[in-house]
Amino acid sequence: MKTKEQLAAEQSAYWKGPGGTMWLGAYERIQRGITGFSEVALGAANARPGERVLDVGCGTGGTTAELANAVGPNGRVLGVDISEPLVGAARAQGLANAAFEVGDATTYPFEAQAFDLIFSRFGVMFFADPVAAFRNIRRAMKPAGRLVFICWRTPQENPWAAVPMRAAMPFLPPMERPGPEDPGQYSFGDRARVERILGQAGFTGLSIEPVDQMLNQGADIPTVMERIGDFGPLARAFKDVAPEQVAKAKEAIAEALEPHATADGVKLAGACWLVRATLP
Q1: pLDDT at residue 35, as a whole number
Q2: How far apart are CA 18 and CA 242, in angstroms?
Q3: Is 81 left (phi over 0), alpha (psi -120 to 50) or beta?
């Protein structure tokens, strides 16, 4: 079993290296798929004029820009992400009332009791020590502050990712499955685990609501297939196998996607938790 320090080092190396690079390369496809979930999360956050906001796992700063617009010129937003390439892209926006820092929210020296709102869109699932991370985040919240984030539920509830992966698996070597306490895309899928982590970190007033939407993966199957291996588990799997195996996997994926092709795009279901919490 890997230690928390080893898990943290792996996450740092991945997001500062190939993960960040692949995310940038797949940016348009990713944003198209998660737009609806972003709107739900930002609506629940309800950032207000003049507030100070922390955006955890800000990535390229798309949500940070939305939050900065909401808080207006008298407000301030800090975006923090472990990936230097993504933070570089975020800074390139030149937002007047936002700043970006490279750092791990588990250890970053946030100003104490500084933020009215702490927000994250798919940025909290990769903590090696989530209780420690949320304790540090809690320390940064004002006493009357609020925490709002959105995260994926279980793989089984997310056909947008499960359908292509299941189709490709017969042609790829076995993939290492993360343990139930390991960081990863679906590490917050278990509602009870989310409740336990936040409770141990000192949060109260928990609200955990399911959010289900269809994700548009692309205009048609050929369009989807052009970028299917750009990011995520398939990208990692494809780089370690022969081209003919990749070709067979892609052929199987295209066939599996056929029932999901509509006149309005290739659409598969996605499932998230919208989580809200306050301090005692």
Answers
A1: 92
A2: 20
A3: beta
Q: How many Å apart are CA 80 and CA 248, to the nearest integer?
A: 39
Contact 206, 188 (CB under 8 A): no
Q: Which domain holds residue 49?
A: 4-154+182-213+269-278
Q: Look at residue 237 and tell me if it is in a domain.
A: no
CB 256 within 8 A of CB 166: yes
By residue count, the chain amounts to 280
Q: Which tokens belong to 227?
A: 């970028």
CATH number at residue 72: 3.40.50.150
Please answer whether residues 65 and 266 qualify as being in contact, where contact means their C-beta atoms are separated by less than 8 angstroms: no
Residue 4 has pLDDT above 90, yes or no: no
Rg, Å, the chain Cα set: 19
* Residue 1: pLDDT over 80: no
Q: Confirm whether 225 is domain-assigned.
A: no
* DSSP bridge partners of 148: 119, 276
Write down the residue that tokens 């309005």 correspond to.
264
**Average pLDDT of the segment spanning 45-50:** 98
Q: Give a yes or no: residue 67 inside a domain.
A: yes
Q: What is the mean pLDDT of the chain?
A: 94
pLDDT band at 160 (very low <50, low <70, confident <90, very high): very high
Backbone angles phi, psi at 7, to 5 degrees: -65, -40
218 located within any domain: no
* pLDDT score recorded for residue 174: 85
Q: What is the DSSP string of 148-184?
A: EEEEE--GGG-HHHHHHHHHHGGGSPPPPPPPTTS-S
d(CA 148, CA 118): 6
Q: What is the longest distance spanned by two Cα atoms in the chain? A: 57
Number of domains in the chain: 1
Read off the amino acid at residue 214: M
